[in-house]
Amino acid sequence: MRPPSPSIPEKEFLNSALKQNLRIDGRIPLDMRTPVFIFGPELGWVDCSLGKTRVVAYVDAKMVKPTPERPFEGMITIHSELSPYGVQRINSPRPSEEEVTITRMLDKIIKRSDALDKESLCILAGQRVWHIRLSLHFLADAGNMVDCACLAGIVALRHFRRPEVEVIGDDEVIVHSPLERAPMPLAIHHSPFCFTFAFFADPETPPILDPTQLEQRLSAGLMSIALNAQKEICVLQKLGGVPQDTEEILRLVKVAVAQAKELSNTVDAKLTADWATRKVEVR
Amino acid sequence: MGSRIEILNEAGFRSDGRRQFELRDLTIDLSKHGEADGSALISHGLTQVLVSAHGPREAKMRSHTFHDRANINVEVVVASFSTGERRKRQRGDKRVLEFAATIKSTFEPVIRTNLYPRSQIDIYVQVLQQDGSTLQTCINAATLALMNAGIPMTDFVCAVTGGVHSTSPMLDLSTLEENDIPHVTVAVMPKTKKVVLVTMETRLHVDRFEEILNLARDAGAILHQEMKEAILARSATLVALAEPVTKNQNKGDDDVVMD
Question: Which residue(s) pair with A209 in the sheet?
Answer without folding.
Answer: A197
